[in-house]
Amino acid sequence: MNKKVEGLTKETEAANYLSEQGYQILARNYRCRLGEIDIIARENGYLVFVEVKYRSNMEMGFPEEAITIHKQKRITNTAKYYLLVNRLPESTPCRFDVVVILKKEIRLIKHAFDAYGS
Name one Pfam family in it (predicted). Predict the structure, then answer.
């Protein structure tokens, strides 16, 4: 399976997992000129921006370690753009979660990081 197909498969697994956890999926693979957000959802009054990270093994470390400060800033700026184009107030309660898939294990990290550049 090529990386793009595998990535989409893992994002589908993550979206299904989040739905089972009570998240309402609003968008997948949201893209704009600033970046991409894998999943946008609502959960317990929050607008949640979700990054999905997958690793088939530990050779490159834990999947969540790939979410660098630079990546966090890009996700944050993309989230701000999403709020702007959807005419949502900046005061909208938002959160940044990460779904980690290591082999066949799925883990959810709520509040994985804070917004940067605020």
Answer: UPF0102
Q: What is the DSSP letter of 49?
A: E
What are the structural domains, with CATH classification, of the chain? 3-113 (3.40.1350.10)
What is the Cα–Cα distance from 69 to 75, expressed in whole angstroms? 10
Q: How far apart are the first and last CA of the chain?
A: 39
CB 1 within 8 Å of CB 9? yes
- The conformation of residue 110, written as its DSSP 8-state character, comes to E
Report which of 13, 10, 87, 3 is spatially closest to residue 47, judged by C-alpha positions.
87
**3-state secondary structure (DSSP) of residue 69:** helix
Q: Are strands 94-102 and 46-55 parallel, antiparallel or unpaired?
A: parallel
Contact 42, 58 (CB under 8 A): no
Phi-psi region of 61 (alpha: psi -120 to 50; beta: other; left: phi over 0): left
Summarize pLDDT for 47-89 with one digit per residue, the tens: 999 999 987 666 666 667 778 899 999 999 999 999 999 999 9
